[in-house]
Amino acid sequence: MSASNLPLYTTPLQRAGHWVLLIFCILVLVFLIAPVLVVVPLAFNNEPYFHFPVQEYSLRWFRDLFTNEVWLHAIFNSVLTATLATLLATTLGTLAAVGLNHHNLPGKRLLMAVLVSPMIVPVVVLAVGSYLFFSKLGIANNLLGIVLVHAVLGMPFVVITVTATLGGFDMNLMRAARGLGASQIEAFRRIMLPLVWPGVLSGALFAFATSFDEVVVVLFLGGPEQTTLPRQMWTGLREQLSPTILSAAFMLILFAIAMLLTLEMLRRRSVALRGVVE
């Protein structure tokens, strides 16, 4: 019998330990997911207050979410801010990843550390610093300030995903294109970008989700006209406990699930493009 055909757990003690670990992991998962699952039935509650278990189901609060001008304005601001921040973060992050892909780049590790530092620095620190800096520029209570900071928060995801995708890219293809007369930009557009686009799109999705779900920076830099969906949910929790917040949370859960499925599809596409067998 080959080593690959041998049973993984050969003794009763090993098998018992395996099942104990499996049950423990399932319980931890349920503990983490349970608060999210409770939101789902409550979002369809017909009562004007939180009541669990639900006595009567209704789409009342979803209608309020998509007909109330306050909530519609918040959704529009979130989509607009996230779109602009994603475009900026994706462009800059992709260019940075391409530059970092050069092996002879001096200070490569330091540059990479600086680019991914927004993932490590607490958001509140970045928000306070941005507020103090943007106040002098007059864009503290402006859409531009929020977009810039959200782009900074989303750019590390683009840099990481594109850098990982470029790890399997053959730079000889670029050299061949340059040898055939293509410019650097044309070689990038026709050779590199079609092969690394799953990584670019994955980073863009992460950047969009980061901006769409962010609330701390908006609280510091957003004025009355820059109320986003997370900020409106935060305000609703503080001032009036409306079940519309739960319907908005349910939509965010669906958005997160759709993003995860899309990212998995892009991962499989990236693996197929590189010819890697899983």
Can you characterise this structure?
The chain has two domains: 3-43; 65-274, Orthogonal Bundle (MetI-like fold). Helices cover 74% and strands 0% of the residues. It has eleven helices and no strands. Helix 6 crosses helix 8 (184-212). The longest helix has 32 residues, at 12-43. It is globular and about 70 Å long.
Key terms:
single chain; mainly alpha; 2 domains; globular; disordered N terminus
Chain-wise SSE layout:
Elements: H1 12-43, H2 60-67, H3 69-100, H4 108-116, H5 123-137, H6 143-166, H7 172-179, H8 184-212, H9 216-221, H10 229-239, H11 244-274
Helix pairs in contact: 1-11, 2-11, 3-6, 3-8, 3-10, 6-8, 7-8, 8-11
In a nutshell, what does this entry contain?
With 278 residues, this protein is mostly helical.
How many strands in all? 0
CATH class of the largest domain: Mainly Alpha
Percent helix among the residues? Answer: over 70%
Instruction: Output the helix-strand order.
Output: HHHHHHHHHHH
CATH superfamily of the largest domain: MetI-like
Helix/strand-derived class? Answer: mainly alpha
Mean of residue pLDDT? 83
Largest sheet: none
Determine the N-to-C terminus distance: 25 Å
Number of helices: 11
Number of domains: 2
The radius of gyration is 24 Å
- The shape, in one word, is globular
